[in-house]
Amino acid sequence: MTEKREIRIKVPLLARVEGEGALDLVISNNRIETLNLRIFEPPRLFEKLLEGREYQEVPDIVARICGICPVAYQMSAVNALEQIFNVQPDPWVHAMRRVFYCGEWIQSHALHIHLLAAPDFLGFNSAPEMAGAYPDEVRRGLKLQSLGNDLIRLFGARSVHPVGARVGGFYRAPDQARVAELVSDLERALPDAAALISWVASLDLADEQQNFCSVSLRHDAEYPIMQSRLMSDHGLDLAIEDYEQKFTEFQVPHSTALHSSLDDRPYLVGPLARLNLNHELLPEATLSILRSTAIRFPSKNMFHSIVARAVEIHFAMLEAIRLLQHYSLPEAPYRDVKPRAGIGYGCTEAPRGLLWHKYETDSNGRIISARIVPPTSQNQARIEQDIAASLQNAGLDQAEAVLRLRAETVIRNYDPCISCATHFLRLKIDRH
Amino acid sequence: MPRRRTLPIRVLAMGSDSGTDRIGFLTIHRLEAIGFKHRYPDNFVATAICRSPALLAARYAPARALIVLDAYCSSDPLGRVRRLAVKDLESKHRPSSSHGFDLKQALQLCTTLEGGNLPVSVVAISIGAEEDTTDTQKAHKLLEMSFPAVLNTVDEDIRAIMSSRSFSSPI
Which residues of chain B are within 8 Å of residue A18 when distances are taken between CB atoms? Predict the structure, then answer.
């Protein structure tokens, strides 16, 4: 008779992720009995905090939700509010918002690749440890991260919780000399971004194919960053206003962050999903570097997310250069806004994936209600599904330390932002 | 290392804009207001604020040396100033906005990338057992209590570097 083997793995505090989460895993007789990505960070109640606020305050309040992706929160919010107020930002604002957002992709992806994810794939416990063996690669990553921060600072005055965005545009336009300087910096750093793609594509990434549904924005003519339509590789084609018809958020007992499902099933958002659905919209310069590697998109290997991030850094740098190289000062960096009552929707591609906002305002533009669906809560169910599949692929009979590391690597591969994700469902009490 | 000798000593305030955690920012603003860096040769000292450890290595290293001003939680009297060794740093709470990449790791990364040759001093100001975000004046009171000691400590560190001695509490 085979001896029954029970493994209990508890990772009480996940390292190298934003916020407070844990993993509880019980394997009994070579079968996963319990697998909970437990998010216990208290909810931050931002949606409630927004109620009663003036519309002008919203971009600065939502920027505080995350120090790594504040631009995404600001851009989803201003898009939603402009929809309510029937404001069409002029082409200058649209282009500069895209540059602003490129800065966030560059800094967030460079940070994740070098300080959070790469140590897992190279067998180190931390970035400082990895930097001892790979100092040039880490320096290169920090340089790219810094360039992303510079782009955010160009429009936001500072790179953490920037304050330059407003409904209708920006508070001020950057001066031409500073823009020209940054374009030169970006051009000089392009070979670094190209080398980064080759480097991450050469990492020893597990060859693991999984079935999952990729969801992202999709635009006919450009790689998606803001607005447009929601698409999936399972036939979804949806206006962002109709998000609630197909996507469901629900509470699970082990998490203060809501889970999300699409047609009752987990789905993936983020750089891999974006690349899976939009790779042909990348510029030829980026595609040709990608073709020189052994990695192909669309990909069903979740570990190719790190390659997708590197590819998006290269794209974002090219895009910022393209949009800034003929930069001129606008007559005004914003359109005037006349508030009115209504409901509006904003959806943009945060570094970690879809960030959907919905606001209702009164006739003075004061917020009546707000709903924010961040990417990490959308990915939570998918992360649990991925851990189960990945551990089974690795072999549940492996040593606990191996299984623990594998599970943590899978989680970190999503770059989860737990602080962004913590929400509670609205509590409804019926008293009889 | 000749290259490093041309770089400034960076005095960096870590923290946020809220509660007693902003003591580092208030301190750096006071240092700037009194023209602190003009006490030293031109471009010898640079001051900055840093809102996230994740930015530290990307933006502020390399340098001739790093002097970090930050709040610390302990049972020490409020406003007490200590030099902390990097190895002794720990996060009482997970730092927000940093993706779990805390000050200790950021400073270790900076020194690793400088081949272990980057002098680092952490000048820490006691804010009591817990951060206080309710009393909006408390950080200002802490500044008045701690500033003379901070000024002396930072000056001592800079003069140690000027005379090529290492800090009293290196990593």
Answer: 96-100
Residue of B nearest to A148 (CA): B58
Q: Are B122 and B70 contacting, i.e. CB atoms less than 8 angstroms apart?
A: yes
Helix axes A135-156, B53-60, angle to 10 degrees: 100
Q: What is the pLDDT of residue A417?
A: 78
Cα first-last separation, chain B: 19
For residue A150, what pLDDT is reported? Answer: 96
The predicted model gives B150-167 an average pLDDT of 87
DSSP-derived secondary structure for B27-78: HHHHHHHTTGGGGSSTTSEEEEEES-HHHHHHHH-S-SEEEEEEEE-SSSPT
Q: What tokens does A280 get?
A: 């042909």
* Strands of the sheet with A21-28, listed across from one edge: A6-11, A21-28, A31-39
CATH of B2-162, one of 3.40.50.1950, 3.40.140.10, 3.40.50.1450, 1.20.1250.20: 3.40.50.1450
Among A198-212, B46-60, B73-87, the range of highest mean pLDDT: A198-212
- Interface size, chain A vs chain B, as Cβ–Cβ contacts under 8 Å: 78
Residues written for chain A: 432
Q: How many whole angstroms separate alpha carbon A102 and alpha carbon A314?
A: 10
What local confidence, expressed as pLDDT, does residue A1 receive?
45
Estimate to the nearest angstrom the gap between the alpha carbon of A352 and the chain centroid: 1
Q: Which residue of A has its CA nearest to B116?
A: A132
Say what the pLDDT of residue A76 is: 98
Check if the beta carbon of residue A335 is closer than 8 Å to that of residue A89. Answer: yes
Partner-chain residue, chosen from B59, B105, B108, that has the shortest CB–CB distance to A149:
B59
Q: Closest Cα of chain A to B75: distance in Å? A: 25
Q: Across the interface, do A115 and B97 touch by the CB < 8 Å criterion?
A: no
**ipTM, interface predicted TM-score of the complex:** 0.83
Omega prior to B53 cis, within 30 of 0:
no
Q: Shortest CB distance from B57 goes to which of A16, A116, A142?
A: A142
Residue range A47-421, CATH number:
1.10.645.10
Q: CB distance from B57 to chain A under 8 Å?
A: yes
The whole-angstrom separation of Cα A111 and Cα A183 is 21
Query: Distance between CA B66 and CA B60 in Å, rounded?
Result: 8
Domain boundaries, chain A: 6-39, 47-421
Query: Domain residue spans in chain B?
Result: 2-162
Average pLDDT of span B36-49 = 90
Q: B101, A115: Cβ pair inside 8 Å?
A: yes
Do B157 and B67 form a contact (C-beta atoms < 8 A)?
A: yes
Residue A311 CA to residue A279 CA, distance in Å, equals 10
Contact in structure between B151 and B39 (CB atoms under 8 Å): no
Chunk chain A into consecutive blocks of 10 residues (it has 432) and report each block's average pLDDT, rounded to whole numbers: 64 63 84 84 83 97 89 98 96 97 97 92 92 96 96 93 96 97 98 98 94 96 94 97 94 84 96 98 98 97 98 98 97 96 98 97 97 92 93 88 87 80 40 34
Q: Using an 8 Å Cβ cutoff, are A88 and A58 in contact?
A: no
Residue B59 with chain A: CB contacts under 8 Å = 146, 149
| Contact flag A127-B105 (C-beta cutoff 8 Å) | yes
pLDDT of residue B170: 43
